[in-house]
Inverse folding.
């Protein structure tokens, strides 16, 4: 079979991205236009501003992706686009663009699930990785423990019941005056703090051993800060950050270890924006090594939202015969495994 060249588009939140991916694992270009500086002014992503910025940027990132790849639309075999989950207005910009190109050029359209994209990022740098394997997806909006049974076949073992890990990072960062985006800022200051300074809770969800809950942890941090303020005690920001981060990591690694034990995974991967956290990566790697399990992770640029991961996921969907029609729509609350 000749090479399959996919133009991928990602616009689910505040990154406008386009990539050209060949055969699911060979990235010829990966262009990302980030809006982070814009949203930092507001302390978080403002959906309407994000959508408007996507409209301004999308043609440019696609042109750049094709140029860097040394291709034109005539060379492309399929268009992959994120259609959910995400911010509805942001998703619609990418979906409308992909449908327009698909229609104008007569190229097949493949709608891609954003979380499947994150999982598929692992295929890009780990050419030898094939299902089945376990995967922990940790991002701003999602915390999932997944069994990847085959390409495009996923079984959710556990998910967060309330806040995703990334949301908790953002809220705690705001509470201790670090600002947005919370994840990188908490990780940075936590290197100067003591992760055992404050005893924050490690939540377990009764009856669902693989599910996560971070809202209690977030509340415990806020209560600790309020308590210090009321008693006039000094708040050591570095210690709060390090202790909070350690509590999150303990739960993530603990649930992953349980899944490895029960399902006998020989391979385990992490994915999503929070997966670029070096402390989490190290803890996961150490745990996997102790279990005799091969550990996989994408480099940080492929952990945050990007289009190369969408191209990787789209390739396997394309091979499986998935084609989306002109009725493809944005689905902001799309569940993993849903079509």
């Amino acid at each position: 079979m000749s090479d399959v060249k996919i133009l991928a588009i990602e616009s689910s939140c505040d990154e406008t991205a386009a990539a050209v991916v060949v055969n699911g694992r060979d990235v010829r270009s990966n262009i990302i236009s980030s809006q982070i500086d814009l949203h930092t002014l507001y302390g978080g992503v403002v959906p309407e501003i994000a959508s408007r910025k996507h409209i301004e940027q999308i043609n440019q990132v696609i042109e750049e992706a094709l140029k860097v790849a040394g291709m034109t639309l005539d060379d492309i075999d399929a268009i992959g686009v994120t259609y959910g989950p995400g911010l509805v207005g942001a998703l619609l910009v990418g979906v409308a663009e992909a449908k327009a190109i698909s229609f104008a050029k007569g190229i097949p359209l493949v709608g891609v699930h954003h979380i499947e994209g994150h999982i598929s990022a692992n295929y890009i740098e780990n050419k030898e990785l094939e299902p089945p394997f376990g995967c922990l997806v940790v991002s701003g909006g999602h915390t999932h423990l997944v069994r990847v049974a085959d390409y495009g076949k996923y079984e959710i073992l556990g998910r967060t019941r309330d806040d995703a890990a990334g949301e908790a990072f953002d809220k705690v960062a705001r509470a201790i005056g670090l600002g947005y985006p919370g994840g990188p800022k908490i990780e940075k200051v936590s290197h100067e703090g003591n992760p055992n300074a404050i005893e924050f809770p490690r939540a377990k969800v009764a009856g669902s051993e693989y599910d996560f809950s971070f809202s209690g942890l977030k509340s415990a941090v806020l209560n600790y800060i309020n308590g210090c303020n009321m008693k006039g005690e000094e708040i050591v920001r570095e210690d709060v950050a390090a202790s909070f981060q350690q509590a999150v990591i303990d739960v993530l690694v603990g649930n992953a270890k349980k899944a490895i034990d029960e399902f006998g995974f020989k391979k385990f991967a992490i994915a999503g924006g929070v997966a670029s956290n070096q402390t989490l990566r190290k803890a996961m790697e150490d745990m996997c090594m102790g279990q005799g399990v091969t550990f996989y992770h994408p480099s940080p640029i492929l952990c945050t939202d990007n289009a190369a991961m969408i191209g990787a996921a789209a390739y396997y969907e394309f091979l499986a015969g998935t084609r989306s029609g002109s009725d493809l729509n944005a689905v902001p609350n799309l569940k993993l495994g849903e079509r």
About this structure: The chain has two domains: 5-120+302-319, 132-299. The radius of gyration is 20 Å.
